[in-house]
Write a structure and sequence with these properties.
Layout lengths: L8 E5 L6 E6 L2 E8 L23 E7 L5 E8 L8 E4 L5 E8 L2 H9 L6 E6 L4 E6 L10 E5 L4 E9 L7 E7 L7 H15 L9
Antiparallel strand pairs: 1-2, 1-12, 2-3, 3-4, 4-5, 5-6, 6-7, 7-8, 8-9, 9-10, 10-11, 11-12
Length: 209
């Protein structure tokens, strides 16, 4: 069974609580994505965790790890009501791998998305903020059509199919189909994309009609 970094096709499912994911290929578990607890900045000087909240609502931190628990990478996002915050993709040693952020495209782009004419566009950048790829999500008119990932030259490198989760019928599962093996850090950014997109959209959008 190929690992997450060897497979060309895999499915990301969210079978239980939000922000807890399983990656599987041909029915075999190849990775887990688990939300980790974080502490609010104002609690930093307190010698114990906040007993009233398991998670900091202003920050979401997810660890994607092999089945044996060894971390592959982390996804880290701070939630802000005043600015668009990217999802940072971080190596187990703390080194930045890159980031994923939504691209609005001005007023016309925003109206195109809201009217359902096209899907949202997300930019995958390396640690130096160089644009490596884009992901275009399905439009609201065709939510099950799937999305596409294209490299910086515009060539399609992967397709992300969307379907109902077999484990939770009102949730989505997403299957990534790579056209060919990808170099780093692009490979890790592509693996991170389905979860990063979920981290940037509101929870109701995770529910299938």
């Amino acid at each position: 069974m190929p690992s997450l970094y060897e497979a060309l096709t895999w499915t990301v499912d969210e079978p239980a609580e939000p922000h807890h994911y399983v990656f599987h290929s041909n029915g075999e578990l190849i990775a887990n994505g688990t939300r980790l607890p974080t502490r609010r900045p104002e609690d930093a000087g307190v010698p114990y965790a906040n007993p009233h909240a398991g998670f900091d609502d202003g920050r979401v931190l997810i660890c994607v790890a092999a089945p044996d628990g060894a971390p592959y990478f982390y996804l880290d996002r701070t939630i802000s009501s005043t600015s668009r915050q990217p999802v940072h993709v971080v190596a187990p040693n703390g080194a930045p791998i890159g980031s994923i952020n939504v691209e609005i495209g001005g007023i016309s782009g925003m109206f195109s998305v809201l009217s359902g004419k096209r899907g949202s566009v997300f930019v995958l950048s390396d640690a130096n903020r160089h644009r490596m790829a884009t992901y275009t999500s399905p439009s609201m008119r065709k939510p099950r059509a799937g999305g596409t990932l294209a490299d910086s030259s515009g060539a399609e490198i992967a397709h992300l199919a969307v379907d109902r989760s077999p484990n939770a019928p009102r949730r989505r599962c997403k299957t990534m189909h790579l056209r060919h093996p990808l170099p780093e850090p692009l490979r890790t950014l592509v693996i991170a994309t389905p979860i990063a997109v979920e981290m940037m959209i509101s929870s109701p959008l995770r529910v299938m009609p």
